[in-house]
Amino acid sequence: MLCFGSGPMFIIWSLNNFTAMSSGSGRIIVAGFVSVLFCYITGNNLPREKNVWFYCTFFGLISLGLPFLLMPLSLRFITTSELAIYLSSVPLFVLLLAQIFLKEKITKQKWLGFIIGIFGLIILSDPYSFSIQNSNELLASILCIIISICLASGGIVLQRMPKYNPISFSAGTFFVATLLAIPVFLFSYPNSNPSLESSLSIVFVGVVSTFLGGLCRILLVKRAGAVFTSINGYLVPLVTCSLGIIFLNETLDVNTILSFLIVITGVLISQDLHNKFLKL
Hints:
Elements: H1 2-5, H2 7-14, H3 20-41, H4 50-74, H5 80-87, H6 90-101, H7 108-125, H8 135-160, H9 166-188, H10 196-224, H11 226-233, H12 236-247, H13 254-271, H14 273-279
């Protein structure tokens, strides 16, 4: 949870010297290099099958490249805590996408959880306070929802694709995302040389939050199952909020806390975790 939860904090630090685009693309490049290197060190190879590369391309561009490029943009106008709450809604969008693309039957209970979760996001975005002055906050909210949908689409891709070596597939997706990130990084690199702190922040986000966090998730799903992993995933916003308060001097207002509780309630209802616990 520390891997994923600490990511937004280090993105904030990288933005002290890097542009939003160079921060996001730099993160992808670092993670891509480490992922491919780890793939070959462990005796694996990049995918060779054309149909697997189709999934790698979609996942790499939509579920890795686009959301990681947009995160720094949103963090210019909202806090890390708010970003974490938006990302906690990913399971809700997985539910919606599964209905559209996998034709899965969605129960009334799951739809109720989805509606409750979306209501929490509306409260978080605070549309009643919209004005010309805070239009950037509204834009950041829209970007966060797009990021959540992109991340949710990754789960649909993994469910539809044939079984494949997760390390090789991960390396292939990061390879594709890196091809997108390199030109973005070159064109958006800041005019002055970034500080060591900002540079190390990007390295940390790439290696720990992106590569290592993804690897731990794969291993955890394999050893303990997807239910246990998803339940622990709900702790990520708590880690992000705590680090933001301790190291970034962020504060939590009533609106943020209320929206977090509503979103998590919606997620828990839609996932029917009580019955899943009974089956374990």
